[in-house]
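Dear all,

This email documents one entry for the complex benchmark we are building for the journal club exercise. For each entry we list the sequence lines for every component of the assembly. Then comes the predicted three-dimensional structure of the complex as a token string, followed by one or two observations. Please use this as the template for your own entries, and keep the labels exactly as they appear.
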Amino acid sequence: MRGTRTISAAIAVAALPAFASLAHAAGAIEGGGKQALNLPAVIMFFAFVAMTLVITYWAARRTRSAADFYAAGGGITAGQNGLAIAGDYMSAASFLGISGLVFASGFDGLIYSVGWLVGWPVILFLIAERLRNLGKYTFADVVSFRLEQTQIRSLSALGTLTVVAFYLIAQMVGAGKLIELLFGLPYLYAVIVVGALMIIYVAFGGMVATTWVQIIKACLLLGGATFMALMVLITFGFSPEALFKKAVETHPRGISIMGPGNLVSDPVSAVSLGLALMFGTAGLPHILMRFFTVSDAKAARKSVFYATGFIGYFYILTFIIGFGAITFLMNDPSFYKVGADGAYNKVTALLGGTNMAAIHLSNAVGGSLFLGFISAVAFATILAVVAGLTLAGASAVSHDLYASVIAKGRVSEDREVQVSKISAVVIGIVAIILGYIFENQNVAFMVGLAFAVAASCNFPVLLMSILWKGTTTRGVLFGGFLGLVSSVAMVVLSPAVWVKTFGFATAPFPYDNPALFSMAIAFGGIWLFSKLDSSNRAQIDRAAFEQQFIRSETGIGSHKAVAH
Amino acid sequence: MSSISIDTIKNDPQFQELVSKRSRFAWTLTAAILIIYFGFIFVIAFVPKVLAIPLGTGIVATVGIPVGLGVIVSAFVLTGIYVARANTEFDAITQQIVERVK
């Protein structure tokens, strides 16, 4: 039993007005006690793995060129890409984390759902089609379109790898814990299985396999969540009011779960959190890569529309699931660690922590077979997301660092793809090792860190290079680097990390979320250093804006889909 | 793309029309979603009690529920509005511009 180490996610989530502490991290799932081997779950999971390996084999045969490997040859349709984007977004953590948050604090869960969703319209209006028109395989293609290749790609690769590293560690640790809990598999084996499978998907199947794994998982997750929400609603005769009434009667916090609690306390934290949720999305490299997998700007737009629909629908489901979990679980001691006197805390004593609310609910509404299905889907979800992250990291190494920075473009396509595959293997092995090292660390803050870096380095750099004529190489380099360094520094010095993780008495930086400040530093830095830049390179950068602008607006000269 | 076609496109009145129409539309919608979302966030930060008001006497559901769901739905609707216009009107204009420089 690992149950001694139950730092409840409920406490972490409810007590901190912090993005960093949010259960979006799979890392917030704590070892609440290893379970006996769950046979239906294992069988369904093996069925999923077998299916994905068949797809990977099929994808590997189709993957011949670099365009196939990085961007699925541009042959993904808008509907498929919408599902894949939604799949990248509906991580195990957002499924388990948000429903767990609703379970613990009710309405507050909705604040996070809303924040994560509203980034999508902004991506659509300002970035999506321009990204498709300008880029080829990575977002660095877009940033370096008219700027100096070597320096800009180095910065973009640094931003990508930083985001991927933190996100991947959080996912690996979360995966290990979750699998240990659901399947009864030892932590190290679980991490090795996840790492090995993601290496196979990415190294052999490239973007085609990664996309299809994501699509299948998205369908399974949407289907499973729909079933759970339906079962909850049927119980209450499709009356939300009846559901809420029962939840208020059951929950120890009573009527207060129907309004905002203490998740967001002061205006600065509120805005900073809002910015990170909204713009972090727009800087996640594995999500940005998806825009290069469709044929043109039209399909890129449509895929955002579909993705927004799927994600919005999914968040409404998690809200119902969270409230359903309150009504189904809180009066049933079999889901709790019950004290000697028969009493238990209805929120924090949930077996495995509050993030397991959706998992327990699946058992309550669908029995052990459905529990097995949802457990298998949760595992599949982690696999699909880490595969996407690995591909984004490997592409940054091969396409940006190796092909452009080291080989200066003098490299064959085959060699570049080969380097990418080797990178995927290396990233996978490093992820397994780090996942093992960080087993007993609190890694929940790492997802917050990944979002902060994405919002403060990748997003400003991308937006300014696309939209502002005056942006120069030096401006992007200094501004982007300042955004990266300041966001990492502020997260490390924040209460969530400095006090709660490192154990110091007071935090030098008072807010848990740095986005308001680090984004201002990045945008301000890019503007200021571009303005002050009177180098020869700056003249070239500014002069080339016109050509970039025409291509970004019309798509003339953009990379076309590869016919098969 | 040669420098000749850059100048041709840049001076094409239809291109200028496309750019100004689309950027006005995109920024208007961006402003709309920012106002909706940060409006929601500011209510939570300054007057959270407003969202905890029940929808009626004896009703448990609060104002916050339809408001929160409304923000989710509005995000979806706004993307739909943009895509509907961009994929028809704007793409048709783009197509004409592209045809001319071929």
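Observations: The mean pLDDT of chain B is 90. Chain B touches chain A through 54 residues (CB under 8 Å).
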